[in-house]
Give the backbone structure.
Amino acid sequence: MKTLVINAGSSSLKYQLVDLNSNKVLARGLCERVGSPDAFRKHRVDDNEVLIEEPLKDHTEALKLVIDSLLSGDDPVIASLDEISSVGHRVVHGGEYFDRSAFIDDDVIAKIEELAELAPLHNKAAVAGIRACRELMPDTPQVAVTRPSSRPCRQKHICIRFRTNTTRSTAFANMGSMVRPIGIFPNAPLRSLVKT
């Protein structure tokens, strides 16, 4: 089971593709200066890192290039998007709505947008990343990972896999903790709700 973890910032998009069965990071990278003609992206597989300078109009364009990097090039890590069973998105502020990870639907997106005034640079970017993923991978389950508050995830057996400590500022440290299986629901039918 492979999970794509996204941390969309106001002008960046950081990512990791993780194999949850082995807890191995298959690829990682970032798109920096999204929306600027000076944009660039880094993509890393094992010890091989590629730096590409090219304009990135928005988060959707950045995600398209991330997906392209995962699928092709010198070190493709997946043969098809169907290999990605779920996507986790870091959302900085969950307000009173979210105390743990939440399975993303239209209602969750609306609430993240409503909370944008609490984290204007981050929540708006998270929604941009979520929308980009929904456009490019419409059948892949997605989970929002927020700071603790009060609303439980309706799909706990998916969401529990994306619990994180979002109080630290180091993006990849946060992203690494997002995909660590917790094991609270060991008998939950996770595979029945994520693509295999």
About this structure: Residues 165 and 174 are 6 Å apart (CA to CA).
